Model the fold of this input.
Amino acid sequence: MMLASLPFINTLLFDWDGTLNDSSAAGFVAFQKSLEGFDVQFDREFYDRHYTPNWYAMYEIMGLPREEWERADSLWVQHYAVEESPMVEGARETIVELHNKDYRLGIVSSGNHSRILDELKKQELDSLFPVLICHEQTTNKKPHPEGLECAMRELNAAPHVCAYVGDVPEDIEMGRRAHVLTVGVRSQFPSSKNLPQARPDIYLDSITELLLHF
Done:
């Protein structure tokens, strides 16, 4: 969808997993392995039904005791590290082109900071993102706008010149709460199928379509 009158935007903030990095399959396997030692039920049906970037909400639904959440997180990071997680097709080229067009870029993710930074370095994209806000830098998880607000403060950017690009409804809700333009892009994560119902300002079938708008 093309907005009838696109506002002036000079700052593009991105979700990472699903939006730029195709981590759905690797993430599911990491959840499977990390939860094997706990007395909880987890399978593909549960993942497809309850997936959310606020994985603590998933832990709560499956009945994982709160005191075990930190250990489950640590195990997930360990197992994910050995899985292959490529960039979404066309994502790297899109980011480079946006950088060449002088957009200011940042990432706001609920993922682990060191993990995402390593993935950015592997793609030689870390220098293009002066701001990387992850769950370690925030108290509140998506769809709370804290992550986006932190990124805008670091970039000294007002909401009306910013857009947030994400692949699940929580991303769109977070952007809306932060008063920025919202861009939804379809991904392989289960809840991405509900993205149109979240009514992003712009909806994309592919990340490369971002260049039609910016």
Remarks:
- Residues 11-23+85-212 form a domain with the Rossmann fold fold (CATH 3.40.50.1000).
- The mean pLDDT is 92.
- Residues 112 and 134 are 6 Å apart (CA to CA).
- The chain has two domains: 11-23+85-212, 24-80.
